[in-house]
Amino acid sequence: MTRAWLPRRFEWLLPPVGVLALVGCLLLGLWGDMHQTLLSYLFAFVFFTGLSVGSLAVAMIQPLTGGAWGYYIRPQVLAALRTLPLMALLVIPILFGMHELYVWTHADALAHDEVLRQQTWWLTPTFFVIRTIGYFVLWLLVGFLFARGLRRNARMSVIAAPGAIVYALTTLMAAFDWISSLTPHWHSDTFGMLVATGWMLGAAALAVLCAACSPYEEDRHPPHLLHDLGTLLCMFVLGWSYLAFMQYLTIWVADLPAENAWYIPRTLTTWRWSAWFLVAFEFAIPFAVLLSRRAKRNRVAMGAVAGMLLAANLVDAFWLVVPGFRPGGFSLRWTDLLAVLGIGALWVCIYLCGLRVTRVPAVRPDADGPVPVVRPRVERADG
Asked: What are the residue ranges spanned by the domains of the chain?
């Protein structure tokens, strides 16, 4: 007998909870500060979009590198891909609210700022909308081709190789458009790669967490596959940490006012504790644990590390978007919580439905490569 992640009657409560939370977020914005409300919405949107799009990148790594670990987390990765249409719909409030979010949409700001005028070849409202739509069209297209290739047992490297290039280019531009252009005077050549790596880290952490904590009794947890996934997480942790440190070091050494403007509110106010939180929980502790071969072969330890990284990834999205517009120091608003709850409830509902319908590759404990046998997941009819 198997059991589901959530009873059906509770799972179907998620959509109304999500809608009510988003409506509450909107009402707070109408009665208060719409700019801060849209910032809350943007950071939640960036986090959950990262889980969806990052899962696409994680899915494409396995056909290019090989190994059975990709089959072990494939149900979780494919379930996350099913949320991409939802995120494509949830980007609409950002497009309608860009005038509140981005200073470069204001004609009076352009008239008095030469730096902004020099960026109008890229930062224009119409082109911003076109690019954002293009990102989601490309992501949905690559996700569709990948899923169809799996169903037809196609040679997945043919799809994964160009798909990885599409992921790299689109996430670099999306990171600049959605996050970096909030402070258009600040630029970093590393920022796009940092966001792209963070998205892959968050997606991999979610997949490992759900796989390691799977409630299905017939599922196996081969130690060597857990070890491979631990190595994958360690790679993402080191990549993200290296890029974050090099960006900070380069800006600190250059000591230019335009570049320091992004770090000053994040390091010279109480926001610095968020930075130290990320240093501890998105680098130091996970890295120390993942150095242990025994920990990487332990399902409980892997689940704990993956959960830690997922929580830190949420804080990272918050730290990237919000501090520049709350210069007084760290602060949480109700809209922050409602935005995460609203988008998160809708996202999790689709994710759980995706897990239910995804067919699971049967990975034997001694399997080192593809195992074509699949079996459907079974759950109780009463939820």
From this structure: 8-361
